[in-house]
Design brief:
The protein is mainly α. The protein has 2 domains: 141 residues, no CATH class; 111 residues, no CATH class. 52% of the residues lie in helices and 8% in strands. It has 12 helices and 5 strands. Strand 2 and strand 3 form a beta hairpin.
């Protein structure tokens, strides 16, 4: 009997510690001056992370506003007897990202998604459309880049204070510690990429088929290339220039050492800015020397004020060009024992 009482006492004690004493101690610690001092010491880092997190969430809301044709909306009800109901009618979806169509169109959309996305979601191959999708790609790329920066910044900040937190608290939920330190929840999902659907449901409701097309970064990049080819075909001026591809943007960022050229920041989402807007000179729209790397927030500030920053940005790019030219001249000089100058005027233009 004594043995049974001992076991019962041990179980009750364990449950008391687990469900009452331990949570009480955890809550008390998070309200203590010791923890509040730790929280205050990293408050600026936490705020920076939360600002970046909010910025990323805003970027996720960016999308090229494309939708199927508006055929109106109503409510379909199948009032047939149970054994006569059209089971696939319930799978029919009616929204602006879903196009109801025949089975052959679903199949063709699977084979040629870009062509059918343009045809049935009313996407016109124009310069305006191309710019809209490029902006969406820029925003989505910045969001993806920002997620990695955010997690790294948050983890580094937490690691810097871990030694100051008692072990019994560290054994509690990691999410609870992040929450008590003031960090916002970080969403790493990619559900914000738009999905466009071609859907077939038979008239009898006994069969259905659908094709879902997700415009993630890879598909969006390829779709922009597809649109560019159509624009080139219809617009001879557009055919004389290259497309601002991911490789070209990457080349500009590498030249700028993945750093905002106005603020010096390198731990924020970055974008490529056109120094001279393409609307002023289309020939410079996709020229490397007409691009400069800026932080996303700086880019938003500069947009609409391009003329104010034009000369400053030109000077920054010209200095980089000068450094590259000087290095090239020194290499040739050392090799041939003869000085061969580079471009002495450093004229702003094509690289």
């Amino acid at each position: 009997m004594f043995f049974i009482y001992t076991i019962i006492f041990a179980v009750v004690t364990f449950l008391f510690i687990k469900n009452v004493a331990y949570p009480y101690a955890i809550n008390r610690y998070f309200k203590s001056e010791e923890f509040l001092a730790i929280k205050e010491s990293i408050s600026q880092h936490v705020q920076d992370c939360n600002d970046l997190n909010q910025h990323i969430q805003n970027l996720k809301l960016s999308y090229a506003d494309i939708e199927s044709f508006d055929y109106g909306k109503g409510q379909l009800s199948d009032t047939s007897r149970y054994n006569m109901k059209r089971k696939n009618w319930s799978e029919s979806t009616n929204n602006r990202w879903t196009h109801p169509c025949s089975l052959s169109i679903v199949k063709n959309a699977n084979d040629q998604p870009f062509k059918y996305l343009c045809k049935y979601f009313n996407i016109k191959p124009t310069e305006e459309t191309l710019e809209k999708f490029e902006n969406a790609l820029n925003d989505f790329s910045a969001a993806e880049q920002g997620k990695g920066l955010l997690v790294q910044e948050r983890d580094d900040t937490i690691a810097s204070v871990m030694e100051s937190i008692p072990p019994f608290v560290l054994r509690s939920s990691e999410d609870r510690i992040k929450q008590e330190l003031g960090f916002m929840l970080v969403s790493l999902s990619q559900l914000y990429f738009p999905v466009y659907t071609f859907q077939y449901v038979s008239a009898g409701g006994n069969s259905s088929s659908r094709f879902d097309f997700r415009l993630d970064l890879e598909q969006l990049e390829r779709f922009i290339g597809y649109l560019a080819e159509l624009v080139k075909f219809e617009n001879s001026v557009a055919g004389q220039r290259a497309l601002m591809t991911a490789k070209l943007r990457e080349r500009i960022k590498v030249r700028d050492n993945f750093t905002c050229q106005l603020t010096g920041q390198n731990n924020v989402p970055l974008e490529v800015h056109h120094i001279i807007p393409w609307s002023k000179d289309e020939r410079l729209r996709y020229v490397v020397s007409n691009g400069i790397t800026l932080a996303k927030s700086v880019h938003e500030m500069v947009n609409g004020r391009e003329e104010e920053f034009e000369e400053q940005f030109k000077k920054i790019v010209s200095e980089k060009k000068f450094q590259q030219t000087t290095k090239g001249a020194k290499k040739v000089n050392n090799k041939n024992k003869k000085y061969i100058p580079g471009n002495p005027y450093l004229r702003y233009g094509h690289i």
